[in-house]
Each structure stands twice: as C-alpha cells, then as structure tokens.
C-alpha cells in the first residue's frame, strides 16, 4: 500500500528507496526522463507534468515568497514494467519558498510507496521527512494535509505499481 507505518518501518523504507530508485532508473524498459522546471512563487496554482509510455506524473503546487527555484522531475519504468517511479525535488536541498499546497499525481499505476520531505539530501546532509500528519497518500496522489502541513517542501518520492497483463 503506502508508506509503512511505524517509525522503524519508515526508516527501513527511507533507507531502501534511494537504492531501489537508482536500480529502477538503471534498469528501465524505456529511458528514464529527467526534466528541469521552475517552481514559481506568487500564490497561483501551477502544474508540471511528464509522461513515459502509459504513465504520467503531475506535480501541482502553490507557493509564496522569494523568486523562482529550479526543481527537477525524474520518472522511470522498471525493466519488467511493474514499477513506475516519480521523484520531484529541489537539487540544492532546501526550498526557501512557502508552499501553501502541493499534490503529486500518477496516472496508469497505483502508489505502493510515497514520501515527502521538507529538506532534500545535499552536501552530506540527510533527507528530512515531513511528519506523517502533514501529508496524505491515496492510490494515485500524495498531497498536503490541510491545516497540518507546515509549508515546507523540498522533495517528493513515489513508487507505483503498474497494472499487470494476465495471460
């Protein structure tokens, strides 16, 4: 289903997911895709989307403060076509924008694991996950939780299971 419950389960997933995503990207059936985009403040809702084969990842957000920040989206499909991954992050680590909302949505697959971070790992620092109550995970989305989200976002990771073709 989604992120494992309990502190030790989340730590295990957090430790395993970067390696799994690297393997997924390295063994992709189609070449993984990385695209740069600007996260723009100003309070308006913006979206950025990328597709790979039958699968799509869309990041929708609204942010305030500062100036544009360069972000990246990376999508990939496993060699056996059973997993679709989508990562959205600020490569410089911490975003200085004040996010009023966010949502990442996958189409063509159902989320197996997802995690959101207030700070992305950079320069020897570790990822800093959001508290579980700050965001919610459904079968196809990861989004802020109204009234609980503390307005900091620097990274989202999703691994989704693709539908199987039965013989």
TrEMBL record:
Coiled coil: none
Name of the protein in question: MYDGF factor
A Pfam short name: UPF0556
Gene Ontology CC annotation, any one: extracellular space
Signal peptide: 1-29
Source species, domain of life: Eukaryota
GO biological process terms held by the UniProt record: positive regulation of angiogenesis; positive regulation of endothelial cell proliferation
Keyword Protein transport (UniProt): no
Keywords noted in UniProt: Signal
Organism whose genome encodes this protein: Stercorarius parasiticus
The keyword Signal belongs to this UniProt entry's keyword annotation: yes
């Amino acid at each position: 289903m989604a992120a494992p419950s309990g502190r030790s389960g989340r730590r295990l997933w957090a430790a395993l997911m970067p390696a799994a995503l690297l393997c997924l990207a390295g063994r992709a059936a189609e070449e993984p895709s990385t695209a740069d985009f600007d996260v723009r403040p100003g309070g308006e809702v913006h979206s950025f989307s990328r597709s790979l084969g039958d699968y799509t990842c869309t990041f929708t957000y609204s942010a305030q403060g500062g100036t544009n920040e360069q972000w990246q989206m990376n999508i990939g499909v496993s060699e056996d076509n059973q997993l679709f991954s989508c990562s959205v992050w600020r490569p410089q680590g911490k975003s200085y924008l004040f996010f009023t909302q966010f949502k990442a949505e996958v189409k063509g697959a159902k989320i197996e694991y997802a995690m959101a971070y207030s700070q992305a790992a950079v320069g020897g620092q570790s990822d800093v996950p959001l508290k579980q109550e700050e965001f919610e995970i459904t079968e196809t989305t990861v989004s802020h939780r109204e009234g609980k989200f503390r307005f900091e976002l620097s990274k989202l990771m999703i691994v989704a299971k693709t539908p199987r073709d039965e013989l």
